[in-house]
Amino acid sequence: MLALAMPALGAKFYKWVDEDGVTHYDTKPPAGQPASEEVRTYHSASSDQDEAVKRLEERRAAEAQAEEAARQRREEQRRIEENPGEVSEERCAKHRENLRILENKPIVRVENPETGEMEVIDQARRERMLEKARAAVEFCEK
């Protein structure tokens, strides 16, 4: 009975203050922030802290993914502004390659954006992709 009443060891958290004076807490020490201190937490078995930490980590991972996607869009926009002909030719080459694959390979796999796994496309999707690829290649040749 006494063992159940004792709090279990909790997760490690790190605390630091940024250059603007804002205090932050996280489950990982901040990169490039040597003045962080480890904070121990203790919680009972009924605590929902682990679930809250999991949600926080998932949210941060989603934010990091969105930030990376935005960075890639900005980089692509910069490339288009600096070398529109080069970017256009790269895209046309990719369309031609996609068309070649769709026309010649009996089985075509694409990455599922939600799971990251490769999936075999069905014939209906293949036909839609072929139609789009042919239109893109035709546009490139004009």
From TrEMBL:
Comp. bias (Basic and acidic residues): 51-91
Region ranges (Disordered): 22-91
Domain called DUF4124: residue spans: 1-52
Alphabetized Pfam families for the sequence: DUF4124
Domain of life: Bacteria
Name by which UniProt lists this protein: DUF4124 domain-containing protein
UniProt organism field: Alloalcanivorax profundimaris
